[in-house]
Each structure stands twice: as C-alpha cells, then as structure tokens.
C-alpha cells in the first residue's frame, strides 16, 4: 500500500517527503538506456507493465524492492534513483526505428543471446539445473531449440553462461555502488549489502551460484569456469581489504586470510538463508558480515579499525 501523502506527494518514511517526479525521471532514463521495450523491462524486474508505466509517470510510488530491481537491471545504484547522486545510466543506443516490432525469428543475435542467458539463469534458479530442458528455455524465449543450441551447444554451456551472466550483473551492481562511495570501508559496507538475499533477484543469483558449485564438484569440465568467476569475486574483496590497509586500517593483518574468512562466511550464510536453516535471515546475515573483519577493520559506523 502506498505511503500517505503530504501536499499531494507520497511520503517515503516519517518526516521525509518523496519527490516522485524526480525519481520517476531518473527511472525513465534507466529504462530508456536499457534498449528494450518498457514491457520487456517490466518483465525483467518482475513488475506489471501498467504498474511500471504509472511509476515512470510519477503517479505511483516505487517500492524499495522495485527500486532495487530497477537499479540492478539498469546497472545504477539505488542511491542514484533516490537522490540523483552517482553515475547515471549510459546513453541509449540510437533506435533503428521507433515502435518497430521485429518478428521473433529476426531478433538481433546478440539480443537473442542475452535473452536466452537471462531466461536460462531464471529457470535454473527456480527449477534446478537438472529440471530445465532446452525445450523449456526455447519456449520461454519464443524461439526454437535449434537457436538455443546455436548459442549453447550443450546444457553445461548454458549453466556456465548463466553463472557468468549472474556474476556480470553482480559486478555491475558493485561498480554502481562503489562510484560515489567515500573510501574503502564504505565500499566494504556496500559490498555486504549487495551480497544479502533481500529480494527474489538476489535469491535467483545465489541459487545459480550454489548450483554451479554442486555441478562443478560432479563435472570437472565445469570447474574452470566456476573457478574463474570465484577468483574475480575474491579479487574484488581482496582489493578492498588492501585498500583499507592503505588507508591505515588493519595494517598488521594478513589480507589473504581476512579475504578467505569473509568470502567463506558470505557463502555459508547465504546457503543457510537459501535453505531456510538455522533461522538465518538477511538482517542477521548482515550483522554477522559487518563483524567479519574484526578486530582489524571495523565496519560499524562510529568505530575505527
């Protein structure tokens, strides 16, 4: 339900009046830069086309989960959408013809590949790798199994591609969050927030990630890709730890050990949240991760490492 209005404008939280027109304007820029129809963008972020249309006109308030999904898909930060601070989305590519509708078999190959990647990741996340058939992917994309096989000859190729797709999406979100962060400690805080399983999109990404681990244990052919994705993620954390040390925090600590402890904790806690075990929740996960670098680096505000 929408928040109560004040002077005709919705209120985000007590004492703060939202400015839907400004948020809507920035949201429109993000959707326009995506290079897809408004209807397709709505489907990508799990909104109804009518609801998104109203939000982009400023007549409907975007909820926190919707803002997070829009930022994630558009490669910008939630902070940018709310306040305008941070880097805006890239300018949209020129359209080959406004309003033109291509036939399904005439879709640009790269656009089709991106669609197959997105659909494959979602199906694997929700159903499980072994429950997804190539025919399911083709049907969800409105294309043929031959087209899917053209891009991904074997089903294992589809899993590898889905993992890379999720990893790229994660790092785009991190890049967006880091652009206006004030120092390495703030970047670590934001990295933790991005890792939390707060929305359905987070759950899907983590599901693909965990399943890629399981399959890599059983299939050596999948290990190299999984190892490369994990190395990229681990390097991001390690670079931030070293940046904190360069800023005078935890200089006597072993950055490799701190990184291994943190990444292991992230993975273990996320699996607990996904499986619903040990009464683990996203807020509890965040609290534990904030203390992961203690006593060398303190992420609690108001404390120094």
Quick tags:
single chain; mainly alpha; 3 strands; globular
Structure description:
The chain is built from 14 helices and 3 strands. The chain is mainly α. The protein has a 3-stranded antiparallel β-sheet with strand order 1-2-3, with no helix packed on it. A hairpin with a 2-residue loop joins strand 1 (5-6) and strand 2. The longest helix has 24 residues, at 155-178. Mean pLDDT is 81; it is low at 1-21 and 93-106.
Structural class: mainly alpha
**Unreliable runs:** 1-21, 93-106
Rg calc: 21 Å
**Residues in helix, %:** 55-70%
Order of secondary-structure elements: EEEHHHHHHHHHHHHHH
Tally the beta strands.
3
Determine the strand fraction and express it as a percent band.
under 5%
Overall shape: globular
Q: Strand arrangement, largest sheet?
A: 1-2-3
User: Average pLDDT value?
Assistant: 81
Main pleated-sheet profile: 3 strands, antiparallel
In whole angstroms, the N-to-C terminal distance is 42 Å
Number of helices: 14
